[in-house]
């Protein structure tokens, strides 16, 4: 299996991998695709990088509150950047994509670095000059490049 998602879907995909580890790796997850995911819900959106094109702070706070529903925002199943090294060392290889003009880019890049430090094979790519959601709205050539990267990485994972 491979898991993946865009934005919040990337968070859920990572959480699924971490939960799978907690359950003894019962699912054969061989790859994860994380496209501009929010991976740190503990940090207030106002403290994250700001861009004109980014999700507005108040809307980001609202999204986080809906997702958290009172849960500890530092729980790794909610904010995977807080996962411990022993859990990260069991994660499947990953593709992590970020958008340069996205307030979530730093936390996804940090997460990719933590996976690499734990010995996980990670392909990291930041797309320059684009905002959150660029694979669905925006420059077609850039979106297609990202989609092809995702497809190519999945092909490699299942060779």
Offer a few descriptive terms.
alpha/beta, four-stranded parallel β-sheet, 159 residues, 39% helix, Rossmann fold
What does this entry look like structurally?
This protein is α/β, with parallel strands linked by helices and 159 residues long. 39% of the residues lie in helices and 18% in strands. Strands 1-2-3-4 form a four-stranded parallel beta sheet, sandwiched between helices. The protein has helices at residues 8-22, 57-68, 85-88, 105-117, 140-157, and strands at 2-6, 31-35, 94-101, 122-131. The model has no long low-confidence stretch (mean pLDDT 96). The chain has five helices and four strands; from the N terminus they run βαβααβαβα. The protein is globular and about 40 Å long. The longest helix is centred in the C-terminal third of the chain and has 18 residues, at 140-157. The chain has one domain (2-157): 3-Layer(aba) Sandwich (Rossmann fold), CATH 3.40.50.
**Rounded to an integer, what's the Rg over CA atoms?**
15 Å
The span between the termini is 13 Å
Integer count of domains: 1
Query: Helical percent range?
Result: 25-40%
For the record, what CATH class applies?
Answer: Alpha Beta
Question: For the largest beta sheet, what order do the strands appear in spatially?
Answer: 1-2-3-4
Summarize the structure.
The chain is of the alpha/beta class. The chain has one domain (2-157): Alpha/Beta hydrolase fold, catalytic domain (Rossmann fold), CATH 3.40.50.1820. It has helices at residues 8-22, 57-68, 85-88, 105-117, 140-157, and strands spanning 2-6, 31-35, 94-101, 122-131.
């Amino acid at each position: 299996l491979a898991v993946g998602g865009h934005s919040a879907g990337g968070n859920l995909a990572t959480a699924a991998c971490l939960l799978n580890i907690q359950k003894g790796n019962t699912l054969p997850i061989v790859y994860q695709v994380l496209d501009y995911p929010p991976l740190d819900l503990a940090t207030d959106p106002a403290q994250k990088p700001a861009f004109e094109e980014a999700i507005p702070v108040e809307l980001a706070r609202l999204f986080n509150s809906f997702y958290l529903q009172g849960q500890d925002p530092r729980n790794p199943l909610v904010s995977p950047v807080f996962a411990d090294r022993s859990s990260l060392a069991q994660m499947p290889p990953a593709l992590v994509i970020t958008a340069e003009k996205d307030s979530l880019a730093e936390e996804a890049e940090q997460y990719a670095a933590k996976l690499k430090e734990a010995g996980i094979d990670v392909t990291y790519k930041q797309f320059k000059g684009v905002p959150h959601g660029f694979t669905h709205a925006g420059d077609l050539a850039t979106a297609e490049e990202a989609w092809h990267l995702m497809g190519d990485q999945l092909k490699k994972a299942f060779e």
